[in-house]
Amino acid sequence: MSGTFLGTPAFPSAARAALSDSQLRRNLAHATGVIRTKRSGVVSEVAEWEELRLAGEAIKNRVLRHLPEYLEQLEASLTAAGATVHWAQDADEANAIVVDIARRHSADEVVKVKSMATQEIDLNTALEQAGIRAWETDLAELIVQLGDDLPSHILVPAIHRNRAEIREIFLREMGRAGRPAPAGVSDEPTDLAEAARAHLREKFLRARVAVSGANFAVAETGTLTVVESEGNGRMCLTLPEVLISVVGIEKILPTYRDLDVMLQLLPRSSTGERMNPYTSTWTGVTPGDGPQEVHVILLDNGRTTVLADPTGRQALRCIRCSACLNVCPVYERTGGHAYGSVYPGPIGAILTPQLRGAAGDGPPNPQADSLPYASSLCGACFEVCPVRIDIPEVLVHLRSRVVDRRRAATRLPSAQDTAMKLASWTFATAGRTKAAERVATAGGRIASAFSRRTPGGRRVLGSVPGPGAGWSAARDIPLPATESFRACWERTDGGRTERPGKDGQP
């Protein structure tokens, strides 16, 4: 995984810092709210939306079941079309291949299409260390790069910035990287986009090497597909002499016809559009048209390890639409930086730990191990996922793996283990259970003296000491009952109250 976020604290600490930034929360609430509304509108237009989701799930599951065969088919199709195929086991291998190709063409710069895979392997840093400058051409990625920032969203990496902040970044930094922004540029989106367009045009026309990812790679034909909203990707894919595409091995579709399903699911789920403004497809090399040297790097980087987990592998169905981020109440309040990965939000909470080898057999990783807990398990992410990834199921699965690994590493029972064993011992006999009920009801009567009333009128406990401190810091703890169910049952003779008859007799 990328070294970009190395040193990021565990999610609870990072989230606590993000929650104190009121401007960040306003930016996130506005942006995710707009995207949610747009998505809801265009999805409601499709009567067979659930059938499309099922079809998308089935296509991706078929790929994962037969991944070795489809990879070999894709390699053969790409080679037959004139492309050169490279295999990269990890980030270091992938970066070394890109650097080597750029050096062989004496390139001191490359232009880049927005790509999660190249962010994942931290390609920009590897190129910079080799003396090669990588220019991001996606508007949001450009904002992040010029601001020396980190991406915080899969679709809109600069979602944490507002227009005024972007204007200041352009005025301050564009001149250092090329054509400066006009001195009088406003914070209107059209003006900011025009400044970015003029800044990037000289880079498009000058660059000899481009780097892209791919949303989909068709095994049947060797066709790669990139969907985008601005046209910068198409400039990178057509103008340079050399094109290098870094593609995760899970991005395969079996047939060209499968694009029909995915190109209906992806734009509606990501940008809330019926179709993407730019959908670029290319198959190898076409003499006299576009790049005359095409390289495709098929990237593993932990994906085969994820594939080996029957529950966790469904994360590899992800088509990077970001719908789960836009509906997640946790992401909306903390933003993407708190997740410490280029994959934030619910999908990042299940993908990052697996790609990093966390929640597995290696040593504990506090940052990655915290991510499966970065969720309320509300299930909204599954409801909007276009390929039906059951993110809550995977989160619970990864939590159990984190607990099992910590137990194996320490060889000591955790506070939770001890509490569960004590509860099991208590409930094993009626006598112990009855005694525990008496203690609890007595505790409830004592605790009522220290309770407080919520705005809704309920009386609850405040924060509690000891093992319950972490729980009570973010939750209202209801008061224990002052009478147990058993005592109530006995007092009322099984729930029946005695009432006198007409003659006064019971």
Automatic annotation (TrEMBL):
It comes from the Bacteria. The keyword Signal does not apply. Residues 71-299 form the LUD domain. Residues 315-389 form the 4Fe-4S ferredoxin-type domain. Pfam families: Fer4_8, LUD_dom. Keywords: 4Fe-4S, Electron transport, Iron, Iron-sulfur, Metal-binding, Repeat, Transport. This is LutB/LldF family L-lactate oxidation iron-sulfur protein. It comes from Pseudonocardia ailaonensis.
